[in-house]
Amino acid sequence: MAEERQKLLDEEGDISSSGPRNESRPVKPMSALCDPRRLLHRIFVLLFMCFLGFGEQGGSIKTLWRELGTIIFALFVCVGQVVAVGALLDLFWLMEIGRFVFGIGGESLAVAQNTYAVNWFNGKELNLVFGLQLSMARLGSTVNMNIMGSVYNRVADLVGSTGHTTLGVSLMIAGVTCIFSLVCALVLGYLDKRAERILNKEQGGTGEVIKLTDVKDFPFQLWLIFIICVGYYVAIFPFIGLGQVFFIEKFNFSPPEARAINSIVYIISAPASPVLGFMVDRIGKNVIWVMCAVFTTLIAHMMLAFTFWNPWIAMSLLGLSYSLLACALWPMVAFVVPEHQLGTAYGFMQSIQNLGLALISMAAGSILDNKGYLFLEVFFSACVCLALIAAVMLYFVDYLRGKRDGSWPPPLTPLHHSLWSVPYDIITNHAP
Question: What residue ranges carry the coiled-coil annotation (predicted)?
């Protein structure tokens, strides 16, 4: 069996999912770019993973469904751009349907992107990979924030008006990125299926299975991770959505200055995320980094709320802590749940995050209208405090989990240990 697998690895031209192999054909060793065991090939795959969600502003999902599901979700994103047609035709109801479909595809595509990352890079590189994916997502957000206004104005000059036609054409231009995401999904699906044939992954049962019944089996650590995710992100995205007017009213910034400082979180996270992800990979101790990121974010919000210091300081601090948390938090899901529950766990985490963002965004708007920005910042600080409490609890719960066997010092669990030098199964002596 081992010889057969090695021959499959060495004879790329003879690889197929069924049918006899041709023993008379000459052996052609794979290049580093084509061999899924090699780092160069995985970096090539990572490029398509990163760009998979660039255009993005229950059942059973096994190995086949990971590839097919990603393509379907990317198609939803493309179809969701019917919003542009609704704008062209001045049909608001069609725009609402388009955004609904786009949301279904975009959020599901993010889950598929996470499961791809864990499948290809589970282990010492995972924090860096999540950092790179975040970097590309934030790059897309930054491009959208700074380019689409110019695109709209340029189209308005060409069309000669600023009505619904101009909006529709601008959205159709932006829709090109959705087509690019679909192309990445197709290429990524082919590469993933090819790797499964070469490495014989299907026989190992490495595919993710998404079942809602898995929720009852989630460990307590995972629920704490969910709380951290919601408590933290609701203090980031809604704040950025309301931040421009905040900087104009409190700090007397001009609109261009307010836009610039409001986008600094995304601008910093684009280059910082992969660097911080690499650092977490080398050092490990994800839960410690999460606590540091949440605490630093709390300091940044308190500076914005209770001082008149230059807000560039607080926003820069917010950008760094946001990048660090994303690199350290999302990979922790793969450390605390079995591989067959990863799709369910990431999907549930994404759903809870978006539900929290939707509810908190409405609450933030109401607080702003009735109480003002000071109360709004206190509210965001309270949300971050909830995330900090959950992070501290996660640290101690995970520590006690490692101490359970009665030995001293207690064995280090994946959330505390450096994953760079010691594989997960050596740390815990069993599969996740």
Answer: none
